[in-house]
């Protein structure tokens, strides 16, 4: 790419970044003709993007100019949830919202009765978390704990290693044993795959550890169909064998960790037979996996989010992540484990978000307990009821757990709801005001990554569609109408990017806005020989890798790696498991991005109807045949799907890929009608896959 067009060129190629919640954070080239985007392309020069985009983002232009795209503010005219609106002007919308928010802020319940709600519509630093935070911090709104995705694993990793870092595709290519542990790489992290393929061509073995034979597992040399939520038991069984057979790296453990001896004693309890009973994997296979992991160099674990969406998810991530510390795999280029590389990016989030503006004592509401927050008068955490709900970058009426409770909350007549969106989503249908937001092609942003080390600039390539405004601009205008006159509300989006880059971290030295405009993306100044824990100085309380993390005990958590059975498993709750004997997993559907792209016709066609996958033995017991309409339910709710009878799922497990829109779904219900608002051991994370259900045939009506 030599011809770098300036933003808003009428015709040319503009450099952008994929905004979506994915480890790959692709560098995108947007082809523009006469002011209209005609095509997006992966940057062929970017070492991770390698010239290709995924199934979904290839359709970004189709989504941007979708006939249903919001172009003007909408005011609700029908009952909540029905989705009837009339167009309004920005002045009408913003004047009304500013007045209502000021009334609520100055009313008897005070500003904490305002709840912001945002997540991963864009991972941009600017449109995802800058003016919005300044705005809510300044008015004194409740804080949102953004736990829906990664907080269990993040906290588990933090307690163990401090910052999240690990081999990226560039290093993983050198590995000779690769465990894809709780991750569907080809769907959720596709730009890792070329590196894995090259590793394999050089002799590496790939093993998938997943209750489902996913498209990724099917491509691996081997698939270990583990029982959901039992990964810590597998890791402890492997450690048992490693210590028993003297395959541990004593020098690494001595120099870089605390708690190795305690771990050896703990692992001694986890004989392969015991681990086999818990995980459902053969004992001899666990023995062999332990030997392979300890003796193949480099050995790499890509551990991802599947295993943390269960009650014990934080400790499970922590436990698995310690395998390379036990064997010293971290010493090798391409050895170790990667949960995320986000800890490598030390942008100046303080300048962007102004956490110093948060009033002391402001309460925090956990986003996955939204149903409770909207339906309990004290929001479940104490304090005033939620009276205003401001949503952007998220679709909680589709993605949050326990949707029955969420909908009950959104239906409240005394709740004032504003949704900033590209489309009238499930959530927007309940809004008093829907505000049209710009897409990634229409605004500035800067992106970190959680699967590599490149910082990427997004330049706008087209003018906003219709009257759409960037999130930042909506909050700027609201602030001004509400009488907030801090100069920080006048910063432009490019000012915000410059502020984000103003960091004294050496890995960001010399990475300026001007350079990003010129080059599009820049690798952090991390060492070329990237082995982040070869000779580590982790920023943990002890300055060591914490096998033993004493601070966890203060939260009632075992400070040593351990196995915590899933909350809804037979081990933890036999009575519940007798009523609901199937564990329902609902990982991403290949052509969708969470609940985004669900309304893009070509991708909706590719995904087809909601499916419910069952093992032949489970289907047989229930009289369910391939293609049957089935009902899947528990005490929280139900949804319908088409049965797929397949040995790709373990007995005892049901699968329905997500995240669907309720409004397009059979009976208006989705998997998230069955999922629970319970939280993980660490980080208050979501337990989407710790979800016991039952399934029955539900013959088509008529
Ligand atoms: N196409 C596409 N890509 C995406 C997304 C998307 O929606 N669509 N979402 C993005 C987001 S937000 C995220 S967080 C990432 C998620 O990235 P990944 O974590 O790689 O995502 P999943 O595809 O959910 O893969 C999780 C896998 O874990 C398995 N699993 C479930 N429970 C367990 C368990 O207890 N143990 C083990 N070992 N495996 C288990 C599931 O069967 C599933 O195959 O993907 C991102 N990429
Ligand atoms: N059952 C089940 N549920 C899950 C999961 C699962 O695996 N199973 N995965 C969970 C995970 S990992 C995650 S991360 C969450 C994700 O949940 P969300 O963060 O809600 O992500 P999306 O569903 O992609 O919805 C993002 C919305 O933001 C909008 N948007 C995009 N860009 C912009 C913008 O610039 N401005 C504004 N105002 N809006 C924008 C999009 O149109 C879209 O409707 O879902 C979770 N829910
Ligand atoms: Mo996520």
TrEMBL record:
Keyword Iron listed: yes
Residue ranges of every copy of the 4Fe-4S Mo/W bis-MGD-type domain listed in the record: 11-68
GO molecular function: iron-sulfur cluster binding; metal ion binding; molybdopterin cofactor binding; oxidoreductase activity
Superkingdom to which the source organism belongs: Bacteria
Family annotation (Gene3D superfamilies): 2.40.40.20, 3.40.50.740, ADC-like domains, Dimethylsulfoxide Reductase, domain 2, Formate dehydrogenase/DMSO reductase
Keyword Metal-binding (UniProt): yes
PROSITE patterns assigned: 4FE4S_MOW_BIS_MGD (PS51669)
CDD domains found in the cross-reference section: MopB_3, MopB_CT_3
SMART domains the record matches: Molybdop_Fe4S4 (SM00926)
Keyword list, A-Z: Iron, Iron-sulfur, Metal-binding
Entry's family note: Belongs to the prokaryotic molybdopterin-containing oxidoreductase family.
Name by which UniProt lists this protein: Anaerobic selenocysteine-containing dehydrogenase
The organism of origin for this protein: Longimicrobium terrae
Organism phylogeny: Bacteria, Pseudomonadati, Gemmatimonadota, Longimicrobiia, Longimicrobiales
């Amino acid at each position: 790419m030599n011809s770098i067009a300036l933003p808003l060129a009428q015709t040319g190629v503009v450099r952008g970044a994929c905004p979506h919640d994915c480890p790959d954070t692709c560098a995108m080239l947007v082809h523009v003709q006469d002011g209209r985007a005609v095509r997006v392309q992966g940057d062929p020069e970017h070492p991770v993007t390698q010239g290709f985009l995924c199934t979904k983002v290839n359709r970004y232009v189709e989504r941007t100019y979708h006939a249903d795209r919001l172009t003007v503010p909408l005011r609700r005219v029908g009952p909540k949830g029905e989705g009837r609106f009339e167009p309004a002007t920005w002045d009408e919308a913003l004047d009304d919202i500013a007045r209502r928010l000021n009334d609520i802020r100055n009313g008897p319940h005070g500003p904490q009765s305002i709840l912001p709600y945002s997540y991963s519509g864009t991972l941009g630093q600017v449109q995802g978390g800058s003016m919005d935070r300044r705005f809510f911090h300044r008015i004194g709104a409740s804080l949102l704990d953004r736990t829906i995705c990664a907080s269990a694993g993040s906290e588990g990793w933090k307690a163990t290693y401090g910052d999240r870092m690990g081999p990226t595709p560039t290093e993983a290519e050198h590995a000779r044993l690769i465990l894809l542990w709780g991750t569907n790489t080809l769907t959720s992290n596709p730009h890792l795959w070329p590196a894995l393929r090259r590793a394999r061509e050089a002799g590496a073995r790939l093993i998938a550890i997943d209750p489902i034979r996913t498209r990724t597992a099917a491509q691996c040399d081997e698939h270990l169909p583990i029982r959901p939520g039992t990964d810590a038991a597998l890791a402890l069984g492997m450690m048992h064998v490693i210590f028993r057979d003297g395959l541990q790296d004593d020098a690494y453990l001595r120099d870089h960790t605390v708690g190795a001896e305690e771990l050896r004693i703990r692992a001694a309890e986890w004989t392969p037979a015991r681990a086999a009973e818990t995980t459902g994997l053969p004992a001899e296979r666990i023995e062999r996996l332990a030997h392979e992991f300890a003796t193949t160099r480099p050995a790499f674990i890509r551990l991802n989010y599947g295993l943390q969406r269960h009650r014990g998810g934080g400790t499970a991530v922590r436990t698995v992540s310690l395998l390379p510390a036990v064997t010293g795999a971290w010493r090798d280029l391409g050895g170790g484990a990667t949960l995320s590389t986000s800890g490598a990016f030390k942008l100046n989030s303080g300048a962007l978000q102004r956490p110093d503006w948060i009033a002391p004592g402001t309460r925090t509401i956990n986003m996955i307990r939204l149903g409770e927050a909207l339906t309990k008068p004290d929001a479940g955490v104490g304090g005033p009821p939620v009276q205003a709900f401001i949503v952007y970058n998220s679709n909680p009426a589709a993605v949050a757990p326990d949707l029955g409770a969420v909908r009950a909350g959104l239906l409240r007549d005394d709740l004032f709801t504003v949704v900033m969106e590209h489309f009238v989503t499930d959530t927007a249908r309940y809004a008093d005001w829907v505000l049209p937001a710009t897409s990634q092609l229409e605004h500035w942003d800067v992106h970190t990554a959680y699967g590599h080390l490149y910082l990427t600039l997004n330049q706008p390539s087209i003018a906003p569609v219709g009257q759409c405004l960037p999130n930042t601009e909506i909050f700027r205008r609201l602030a001004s109408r509400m009488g907030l006159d801090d100069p920080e509300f006048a910063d432009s989006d490019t000012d915000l990017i410059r502020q984000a880059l103003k960091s004294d971290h050496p890995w960001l030295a010399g990475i300026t806005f001007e350079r990003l405009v010129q080059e599009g993306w820049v690798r952090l100044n991390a060492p070329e020989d990237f082995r982040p824990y070869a000779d580590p100085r982790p920023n943990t309380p002890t300055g060591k890798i914490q096998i033993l993390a004493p601070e966890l005990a203060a939260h009632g958590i075992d400070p040593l790696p351990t196995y915590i059975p899933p909350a809804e498993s037979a081990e933890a709750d036999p009575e519940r498991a007798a009523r609901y004997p199937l564990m329902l997993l609902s990982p991403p559907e290949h052509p969708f991005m969470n609940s985004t792209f669900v309304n893009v016709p070509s991708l909706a066609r590719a995904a087809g109807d909601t499916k419910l996958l069952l093992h032949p033995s489970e289907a047989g017991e229930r009289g369910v045949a391939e293609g049957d309409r089935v009902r899947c339910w528990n005490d929280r709710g139900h949804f319908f799907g088409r049965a797929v009878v397949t040995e790709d799922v373990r007995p005892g497990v049901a699968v329905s890929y997500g995240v669907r829109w309720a409004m397009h779904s059979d009976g208006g219900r989705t998997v998230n009608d069955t999922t629970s608002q319970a939280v993980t051991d660490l980080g208050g994370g979501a337990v989407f896959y710790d979800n016991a259900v039952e399934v029955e045939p539900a013959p088509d009506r008529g």
